[in-house]
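lol forgot to send this yesterday, sorry. struct tokens for the thing we talked abt
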């Protein structure tokens, strides 16, 4: 697999560096929507990480299983209250198979972009379809590539500028390869640098991948609150259904 793998240090800091994504305003709408789609069935999370979504979804009564490529991230998950009842498997989301069938498979926070080839991303859709029961749904949360921000000749754009964090993306508009560059301010005034690599994907490209996996687009929103997806939306939450 071409995905970056979170190491011990990155996994230990993950919840802290992604603190905004753990707020109720971010978590509750996602859990509400996913719980409604799961209904009385089980759910499988690809790239479960430290359980940001899986733990509260499990607490809502949805049986959740998870797959993640990083052992250290799974170690962080296992330490959390409420995570003991969540089975997890170490492996990649494009090929790893777990026992059972699921009414819901989901993949959040842009993580499908961690698969850095089109072939691997297609394989991820097919792997989701293999796990789904008839009528089951695959849900993906993903950003829309912000290419409007790139004037001719520019290769980098900022996505976060604050007192404690600076982040910008570099992208190759031919290969769809990109890197997110992070600079975090430490307590002593020094800065810690980190990078993560990705392949960006358009919503229409996702739809074609879904077709190749035998899935049909059912819904697409701009966010977990089901707000309309428009030409100005910066992200999308898409739902594909297995006939």
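and heres what i got for the seq, position by position
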């Amino acid at each position: 697999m071409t995905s970056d793998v979170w190491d011990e240090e990155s996994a230990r800091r993950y919840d802290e560096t992604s603190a905004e994504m753990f707020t109720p305003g971010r978590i509750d709408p996602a859990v509400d929507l996913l719980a409604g789609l799961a209904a009385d069935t089980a759910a499988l999370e690809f790239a479960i990480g430290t359980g940001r979504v899986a733990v509260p979804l499990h607490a809502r009564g949805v049986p959740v299983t998870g797959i993640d490529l990083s052992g250290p991230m799974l170690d962080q998950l296992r330490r959390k209250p409420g995570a003991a009842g969540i089975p997890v498997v170490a492996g990649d989301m494009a090929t790893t198979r777990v026992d059972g069938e699921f009414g819901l498979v989901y993949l959040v926070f842009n993580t499908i972009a961690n698969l850095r080839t089109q072939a691997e991303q297609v394989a991820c859709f097919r792997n989701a379809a293999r796990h789904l029961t008839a009528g089951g749904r695959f849900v993906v949360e993903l950003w829309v590539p912000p290419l409007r921000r790139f004037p001719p000749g520019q290769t980098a754009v900022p996505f976060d500028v604050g007192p404690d964090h600076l982040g910008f993306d570099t992208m190759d508009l031919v290969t769809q390869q990109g890197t997110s560059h992070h600079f975090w301010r430490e307590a002593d005034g020094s800065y810690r640098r980190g990078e993560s690599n990705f392949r960006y994907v358009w919503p229409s490209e996702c739809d074609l991948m879904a077709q190749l996996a035998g899935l049909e687009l059912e819904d697409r929103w701009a966010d977990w609150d089901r707000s309309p997806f428009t030409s100005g939306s910066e992200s999308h939450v898409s739902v594909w259904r297995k006939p």
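The chain has a mean pLDDT of 93. anyway ping me if u want another try
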